[in-house]
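Treating backbone geometry as a discrete language has practical consequences that deserve illustration. Part of our work consisted of pairing the sequence of a single chain with a tokenised description of its backbone. We regard such an encoding as a compact summary of how the chain folds. The amino acid sequence and the backbone structure tokens for this protein are reproduced below.
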Amino acid sequence: MTDRTPSGLAERSYFFAHVMPQIQDMEELRVVLTVFYLLHQKQGLPRFVTYGELLSNGALVAQMGEEGLRRALDSAVERGAILRASIELEGSSQDAYFANTECDRQAIDRLRVGRLPAGEATPSTGARSFNVFSPYEENIGMLTPMVADELREAEKRYPGQWIHDAFKEAVALNKRSWRYVSRILERWAIEGKDSGENRRSAKKSGANKYIKGRYGHLVRRQ
């Protein structure tokens, strides 16, 4: 479970304190931990693990067999340790498994109504050409070790284009801080990047700079 927002951290703490101690079956526990490990390797949002990915895990299947894998997944879903949703991916319907966080619950709802294309939302875990440090250094300033760690985590969670666009929007609004950029990314993850709220905010800011400026008394609001 890799959501590091306040709500994500609270849900992760709840899982380890209350849900995990209830798991008595070792196969179920092994499956849950495998799902979390694979989710941590993913980029983009939402992050999920398909049944096919789990089935291709030779060590996992060798230990419990396909029937045992299905049984352990069903038990983990019933317990609420992980979430399951049937999604359209690469032209076919597949079972996908998510961490049980508020962000992922909302992502599942968007996937079900077609507002979030699953194939585009979760890119592969291959090498990344996007340098997450460049937009920070170009638009905000010198990196600190703490900010560098947060940028690396953001690089795992969000597509590079999202990060680039979030910096661009923050600069347009004259909000040159990583805290503001990260809030933009968190909002996009929950509401969808193309919700329109960001365009409205930028438009409003553009108008206000004239209304509140030196010659604001000469400008009439439409």
About this structure: DSSP finds eleven helices and three strands in the chain. The longest helix spans residues 58-79.
